[in-house]
Specification:
The complex is a heterodimer. By secondary structure, chain A is of the alpha+beta class. Chain A is built from three helices and three strands, in the order H-E-H-H-E-E. In chain A, strands 1-3-2 form a three-stranded antiparallel β-sheet. The longest helix of chain A has 14 residues, at about 5-15. Chain B contains two helices and eight strands, in the order ββαβββαβββ. The chains are: A alpha+beta, B alpha+beta. Chains A and B meet through helix 2, helix 3 and strand 2 of A and helix 2, strand 6 and strand 8 of B.
Amino acid sequence: MRQEEALQVISDVITAHNGEITHNDLVAELESAGKGKAVVHVLGLSQSRQIVPDVRATATPGQPPVLWYRLPGGDS
Amino acid sequence: MAVAIGILYTVRDAKNETSTMQINLPSATAITDVTIFASQMATLLNAAIKGAITRIGVALTVDLPAGLRASPLADADVEEGALFQFTTDGGFRTSFRVPTFDEDLISAGSRDVDTTDGAVASLIAAMTAGLNLTAGGGSGVVEPSDARDDDVAALVFAREQFTKSRG
């Protein structure tokens, strides 16, 4: 799968999740939909800001930050 | 008891060798005071030494958060690690090596770290895009830089690396 195709697949998933999704949920959804090859493009797309990574600290002590993705231009 | 704040001075001699010394301040000292103290103390040291002070650093000790493992796993080995190298906005390279890196996070049949794993992806994203501290009580997104204060921009590679342990 080319990066452009992966971007479209991933964008559709994020859109279907009201504009943002966690890394683990995105990977699980892509794999369950038979789109596992898109997963290998996630890092590249996020580093080029074609999907926007957002690592959020949690308010609960002891809980690790969670990596979310959203589409460019969305709310931060 | 809180641990003191350490000020680290690096001194270079005529043979280009360097040595580091440390002066501690109480943990409650304000950061602005720490930097002023460190700077003023450097001028006092400068008058008493023959070498050149080439770097002043501040080492803050942070309380270990809840949720970290209390003891290493049975197969943890500091000689086994992973080297992460990044580029910065200015095109410089910066890297760190993660000791005792989990071998399960190395892609099968290669030396490359599996960057699609959630734990790895989060680590890389925190380095390149920053960590949003708002929910944790911070003021917003904090992004790592290199030693030149240049923003870390993208991963170049992440691969396993074996080294000798110190000591």
